[in-house]
């Protein structure tokens, strides 16, 4: 009898632990730098949300960093800076200046109650500096819950119009039609909408890849 009671208690505890673990799903944010130069990611939470990373990060070519989202809803932006001095103490100095035109990843996680959805997009409204693609890993995608890659894998600095170049050619201001023609899956104006829904159920990871190779590149 005692043995049976012990087994029953163990099974009950295991069930409760499993239920609790599945309810608190963990989501990771990963940045993988495939650019042939180092970058310095900047994590900027929206007002009222906690910081994801409070230290200066330098990603060398093929470097990777992963940080954990909180288990509660979170929203914010991720940008990458180039040409920086790498010290960051007391301030990071970059050849591109403090606020160059930049590619922006806009992220929201743990929204939608039991559906625990993520919403993500790449914005070129502030300009372009680095090719960026967001790909969810391990999320559900049925019906309108699509876990599709979103972003701009093309280096728009290459053919940027001369009058739109910034930061010595390391960034591009536009024009918006140029951005949209080559990167239709990125947002290029404040009121722009993504061509496909970018909502994904409970991804285990949101992966940002910088300078991802495209089929037209060698």
TrEMBL record:
GO BP terms, alphabetized: defense response
Signal peptide coordinates: 1-23
UniProt keyword Transferase, yes or no: no
Keywords from the UniProt entry: Disulfide bond, Plant defense, Signal
Domain of life: Eukaryota
Record-annotated disulphide pairs: 84-94, 160-172
Pfam families: Thaumatin
PANTHER family assigned to the protein according to its UniProt record, in alphabetical order: OS03G0233200 PROTEIN
UniProt protein name: Osmotin-like protein
């Amino acid at each position: 009898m005692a043995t049976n009671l012990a087994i029953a208690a163990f099974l009950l505890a295991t069930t409760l632990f499993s239920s609790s673990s599945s309810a608190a799903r963990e989501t990771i944010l990963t940045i993988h730098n495939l650019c042939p130069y180092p970058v310095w990611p900047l994590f900027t939470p929206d007002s009222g949300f906690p910081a994801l990373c409070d230290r200066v990060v330098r990603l060398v070519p093929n470097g990777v960093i992963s940080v954990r989202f909180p288990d509660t809803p979170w929203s914010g932006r991720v940008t990458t800076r180039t040409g920086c001095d790498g010290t960051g103490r007391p301030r990071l100095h970059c050849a591109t200046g403090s606020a160059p035109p930049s590619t922006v990843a806009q992220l929201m996680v743990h929204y939608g109650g039991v559906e625990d959805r993520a919403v993500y997009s790449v914005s070129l409204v502030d300009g372009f500096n680095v090719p960026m693609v967001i790909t969810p890993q391990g999320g559900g995608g049925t019906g309108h819950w699509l876990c599709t890659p979103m972003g701009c894998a093309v280096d728009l600095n290459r053919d940027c119009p001369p009058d739109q170049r910034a930061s010595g050619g390391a960034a591009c201001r536009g024009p918006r039609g140029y951005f949209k023609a080559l990167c239709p899956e990125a947002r290029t104006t404040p009121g722009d909408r993504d061509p496909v829904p970018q909502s994904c159920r409970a991804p285990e990871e949101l992966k940002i890849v910088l300078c991802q190779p495209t089929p037209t590149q060698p």
